[in-house]
């Protein structure tokens, strides 16, 4: 089983952020952890855990003692040997003591919200670190044997390709095995949305996407999902489980679970969550929805989906379920060696292709 734990607290709110989050306030943390512990006890059936992902929010915004309490709660899972155990962090909340604490509780992967190394871009995003802070934290993680590190990067905040080039150079200099690169999305209920910020020109966005792809793949990073690149052997096991449309628990405010074909969404309301009213809605996904999700999520992976596995899972040939002939004929999809995948030439436009399967 794969486990996601949501810690919604952040020390400041980023201008683009659309995640379930709240400003950190220490009077809520103990209550939140009480409620989280109860939720886990009420829903988890002692399944063997193969991956844990603590996301947010900013889980490391918790104080040392709060973070230790969270890690102790998580220790009660029936944890397999050699699991991937990730925590998300921002740069400024990860000090040496917390890094040692993560190590003590066997957290072996850190996903750092870097977004950019450029001071002006960071200011626009309302992020509060510098390039030197990133270097310092990553060195400290490595010194403490946490070498499986991801950084998140956002491009398209402005149309300056030189800034992006520098960002990628700095990333390469860090010599870490994973990067997630997202083009800025402007959501209505964010500061950028409220201020009617505009997207950069599509052609420049494409140039940036292409630059990232070429530069990273030329430096031995494997492009394995629309937004994700890793060194060989460092693909995110946890996220691959989502893209393979397999089951997982999500605990915490706003978290989502996928269990026995039920998509279960937790409340995004803190008061309700603290009151133990965890679940907001539960939707049964019938076989048509399951197949469609498996296809859409699977095609996010550069390697695509194995059509034989699809047949074993649903007892149906994928070609009989969807009209993919035209897309194959147009060379947008490729079916080769039992894998169906998006032609790399069209990967940037994958949403336009995936829309056919909704
Ligand atoms: S740190 Fe992450 S969750 Fe918190 S406001 Fe920024 S983007 Fe959102």
The share of residues in helices is 25-40%
How many structural domains are formed by the residues? Answer: 2
Largest sheet: 9 strands, mixed
Rg (C-alpha, Å): 21 Å
The CATH class label of the largest domain is Alpha Beta
Q: Please report which band the strand proportion falls in: under 5%, 5-15%, 15-25%, 25-35%, 35-45% or over 45%.
A: 15-25%
CATH topology of the largest domain: TIM Barrel
Order of strands, main sheet, comes to 9-10-8-7-6-5-4-1-11
CATH architecture label of the largest domain: Alpha-Beta Barrel
Shape: globular
Bound molecule kinds, no repeats: iron/sulfur cluster
For the record, what is the CATH homologous superfamily label of the largest domain?
Aldolase class I
Q: In words, what does this structure look like?
A:
Helices cover 39% and strands 25% of the residues. The chain contains 15 helices and 17 strands. With 358 residues, the chain is of the alpha/beta class. The mean pLDDT is 96. Helix 1 runs parallel beside helix 2 (64-75). The longest helix is centred in the first third of the chain and has 18 residues, at 26-43. Strand 7 (148-155), helix 6 (161-174) and strand 8 (178-183) form a beta-alpha-beta unit. It has 2 domains: 2-242, Aldolase class I (TIM Barrel, Alpha-Beta Barrel); 305-358, no CATH class. It binds iron/sulfur cluster.
Architecture blueprint of SSEs:
Elements: E1 2-7, E2 9-10, E3 22-23, H1 26-43, E4 48-56, H2 64-75, E5 78-90, H3 96-104, E6 109-115, H4 119-125, H5 131-143, E7 148-155, H6 161-174, E8 178-183, H7 191-194, H8 202-218, E9 222-225, E10 228-230, H9 237-243, E11 249-251, E12 256-259, E13 262-266, H10 270-274, E14 279-284, H11 287-298, E15 305-306, H12 307-314, H13 318-321, H14 325-329, E16 333-336, E17 339-342, H15 350-354
Parallel strand pairs: 1-4, 1-11, 2-3, 4-5, 5-6, 6-7, 7-8
Antiparallel strand pairs: 8-10, 9-10, 12-13, 13-14, 15-17, 16-17
Helix pairs in contact: 1-2, 2-3, 6-8
Residues 10, 13-14, 17, 19, 21, 56-58, 90, 113 line the site of iron/sulfur cluster.
């Amino acid at each position: 089983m794969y486990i996601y734990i949501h810690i919604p607290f952040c020390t400041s709110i980023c201008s683009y952020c659309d995640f379930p989050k709240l400003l950190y306030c220490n009077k809520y943390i103990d209550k939140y952890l009480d409620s989280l512990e109860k939720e886990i006890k009420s829903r988890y059936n002692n399944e063997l855990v193969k991956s844990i992902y603590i996301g947010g929010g900013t889980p490391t915004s918790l104080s040392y003692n709060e973070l230790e309490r969270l890690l102790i709660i998580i220790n009660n899972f029936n944890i397999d040997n050699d699991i991937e155990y990730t925590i998300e962090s921002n740069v400024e909340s990860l000090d040496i003591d917390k890094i040692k604490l993560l190590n003590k509780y066997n957290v072996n992967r850190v996903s750092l919200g870097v977004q950019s190394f450029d001071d002006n871009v960071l200011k626009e995003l309302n992020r509060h670190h510098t390039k030197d802070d990133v270097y310092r934290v990553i060195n400290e993680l490595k010194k403490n044997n946490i070498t499986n590190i991801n950084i998140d990067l956002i491009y398209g905040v402005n149309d300056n390709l030189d800034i992006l080039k520098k960002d990628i150079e700095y990333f390469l200099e860090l010599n870490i095995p994973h990067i997630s690169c997202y083009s800025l999305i402007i959501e209505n209920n964010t500061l950028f949305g409220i201020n009617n910020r505009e997207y950069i020109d599509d052609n420049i966005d494409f140039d940036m996407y292409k630059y990232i792809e070429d530069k990273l793949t030329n430096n031995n990073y494997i492009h394995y999902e629309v937004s994700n690149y890793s060194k060989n052997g460092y693909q995110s096991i946890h996220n691959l489980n989502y893209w393979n449309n397999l089951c997982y628990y999500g605990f915490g405010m706003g978290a989502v679970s996928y269990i026995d074909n039920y998509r279960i969404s937790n409340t995004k309301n803190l008061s309700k969550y603290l009151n133990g009213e965890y679940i907001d809605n539960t939707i049964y996904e019938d076989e048509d929805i399951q197949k469609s999700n498996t296809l859409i999520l699977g095609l996010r992976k550069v390697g695509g989906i194995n059509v034989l596995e699809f047949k074993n899972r649903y007892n149906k040939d994928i070609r009989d379920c969807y009209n993919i002939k035209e897309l194959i004929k147009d060379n947008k999809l490729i079916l080769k060696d039992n894998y169906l995948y998006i032609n790399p030439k069209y990967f940037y436009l994958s949403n336009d292709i995936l829309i056919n399967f909704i």
